[in-house]
Amino acid sequence: MEDSPLQRLNILIGETAVQKLENLKVAVFGVGGVGSWCAEALVRSGVNEMTLVDSDSVALSNVNRQLPALENTVGKLKVDALAERLLQVRSSLIVHKLAVRYSAESRSEFDWNHYDVVIDAIDSVNDKVDLLIHASSLGIKVFSSLGAAGKLDPTFVRSASIWKTHACPLGKIVRVKLRENGFAGDFMAVFSEEKNREGYAVPEGKGKPALGSFVGVTAAFGMTLASLVVRSVVDG
After folding, report:
1. 45: closest CA among 83, 78, 74, 12?
2. How many CB atoms lie within 10 A of CB 147?
3. What is the pLDDT of residues 46-67, one digit of tens each?
4. Residue 27 contacts residue 72 (beta carbons within 8 Å)
């Protein structure tokens, strides 16, 4: 059997499914502790065109959980650092880097006709809900990450319809806001049934609190999102 980067995946899911993955155009909104792992897993699974969306730069505090965060990438834009890594995995990758924060105000800056799949790994609740509603309204397949912070056990990670997610405080807020906006659609979301550990959120200046996070959980969220995308292609 001829050796190739996708040989083992081809054995598992078949040539037709691999070709569909290679033609898939994916946009990952938020390339931190969850989105970065999802992005790399999808590139390693054949996705050959990807848009990375994140306005932040790599900080030293990201090193414990974010794939492109290394001592020598601190200070770089996350989309630049991750794109460099992904191109080492697949040199033929077409990667679009958008160092922009997604919001209702910046929505028009994105080429929505160019995305087959949107991965939501955004932290801000209002921006997250707006992305989920807007992308879904355009008929784009959406997969969302809920709360991965405050947890240590990846065996509690689950996926379900957004309406069937449970035991996740962020999920509850997202469901309420979706209903308030009259959203009647559906999409798959990744969440954890593990209870948040006490003291996982620490006040940090005037902004939002710093959230304690563990790479074993954030990466599991990202890998589960990637699995959902691959299975959606395999299952048609």
Report:
1. 12
2. 24
3. 999 999 999 999 999 999 999 9
4. no
